[in-house]
Design brief:
142 residues; alpha+beta; Nuclear Transport Factor 2, Chain: A; 4-stranded antiparallel β-sheet; 3 helices; 4 strands; globular
């Protein structure tokens, strides 16, 4: 009876966590697709809200997104979007085989592994995301 209780407790604990991570994965994939679409259509102003700020203002670093109203920040967004568009342009399709989670300096970072395919060739690229105000936003492309 005690073993049954332990097994049920473990299942009851793990299932909700798996469901939550599954929702997180879908949100990240949606953010990634939106970024791909905005980058391809050169809609940099809207894309700014999907990219975490990583400039010199320490109070905003990974706590805010880029502001499209700032020419300097929009320039950074354009640079990132052009890189994303280039990856899309050289491939026929992309797939997200896995999303992993790690904690760095008390920040939850989710890494989406993306395989860009063109015929038999594959290019594996990692996109890192964090959650800012309920939206998963890009921090890095590796």
């Amino acid at each position: 009876m005690k073993k049954l209780f332990v097994i049920l407790f473990i299942i009851g604990t793990l299932l909700p966590l798996n469901f939550i991570f599954s929702q997180t994965e879908e949100q990240i994939k949606n953010s990634l697709k939106t970024l791909f679409d905005l980058s391809s259509s050169k809609n940099y102003e809207k894309a700014a809200s999907y990219i975490a700020y990583s400039g010199n203002d320490k109070s905003r670093y990974w706590a805010d997104t880029y502001k499209s109203s700032s020419n300097e920040e929009l320039s950074q967004v354009k640079r990132i979007c052009k890189k994303i568009a280039a990856l899309n342009n050289i491939s026929d399709k992309y797939d997200v085989p896995s999303i992993s989670h790690k904690k760095v300096n008390n920040v939850d970072i989710y890494t989406a592994e993306v395989d860009f395919s063109n015929g038999e060739q594959k290019l594996k690229t990692e996109f890192d995301f964090i959650n800012i105000d309920g939206r998963f936003v890009l921090t890095e492309i590796n």
